[in-house]
Write a sequence for this structure.
């Protein structure tokens, strides 16, 4: 049994505001320990259940946040940026039996602690075939094309509700309860570590590869907070304006869809100017 953990940070224990997740800040340094604790708890739970290999793919910001030296020695970690499948890199090699989304969050424009989709701001909504989509939704469609089920999701309580829509069989753990975008009722790391470890152990039997799901075509629509960002996004081939602040594109597969989305967000992030956005 091989498990892939896609590890994001906004949904980690104790994380509630931007400084908690922005590399280089004192709060980020503190929260790296909490983030690592969540991920390591999932690793321990999967090994408790008999996993042969657990690979962690760092999926937050610079993708250099977890503390390798604090992880269980049996685990492996893929760290760093510029990966073909970004947040779910590693799923494409045909040897992953199940994937866990640890530290996930809700999508841009939705309620949830630090809710966003890929970009912290600028994007105000993403829709996949007409349905509002979080990073969890997008990534779940990608891994389905490789026959890999989402078996565990951790984050705030609204993230767990979101997961019920794209991975109804997955085990979920709420490490905090949403109050506002920058506030939450948080459990202690000792409690969340125990909860995540138990959930991972319970989720492991769900790690059974299935036939690849070919659900395309996929139409992705992205809404921005400024008109010039929509204009900038049309530099990406196949991306066209669908409204004053919206663009859309259609891909035959989610492999193509997520790579185009990454290109759009990269172009748009470069088009944001200080203060005025």
């Amino acid at each position: 049994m091989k498990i892939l953990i896609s590890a994001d940070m906004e949904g980690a224990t104790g994380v509630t505001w931007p400084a908690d997740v922005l590399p280089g800040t004192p709060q980020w340094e503190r929260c790296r320990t909490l983030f690592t604790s969540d991920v390591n708890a999932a690793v321990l739970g999967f090994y408790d259940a008999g996993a042969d290999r657990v690979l962690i793919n760092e999926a937050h910001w610079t993708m250099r946040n977890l503390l390798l030296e604090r992880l269980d020695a049996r685990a492996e970690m893929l760290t760093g940026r510029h990966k073909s499948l970004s947040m779910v890199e590693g799923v494409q090699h045909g040897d992953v039996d199940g994937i866990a989304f640890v530290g996930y969050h809700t999508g841009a424009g939705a309620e949830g602690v630090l809710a966003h989709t890929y970009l912290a701001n600028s994007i105000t909504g993403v829709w996949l075939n007409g349905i509002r989509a979080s990073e969890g939704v997008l990534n779940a469609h990608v891994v389905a094309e490789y026959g890999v089920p989402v078996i565990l999701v951790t984050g705030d309580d609204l993230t767990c509700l979101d997961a019920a829509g794209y991975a109804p069989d997955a085990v979920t753990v709420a490490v905090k309860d949403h109050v506002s975008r920058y506030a939450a009722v948080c459990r202690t790391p000792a409690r969340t570590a125990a909860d995540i470890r138990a959930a991972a152990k319970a989720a492991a039997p769900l790690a059974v590869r299935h036939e690849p799901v070919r659900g395309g075509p996929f139409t992705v629509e992205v809404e921005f907070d400024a008109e010039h960002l929509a204009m900038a996004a049309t530099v990406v081939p196949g991306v066209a304006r669908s409204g004053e602040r919206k663009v859309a594109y259609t891909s035959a597969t989610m492999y193509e869809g997520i790579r185009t989305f990454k290109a759009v967000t990269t172009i748009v992030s470069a088009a944001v100017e200080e203060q005025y956005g």
Summary: The longest helix spans residues 26-48. The mean pLDDT is 98.
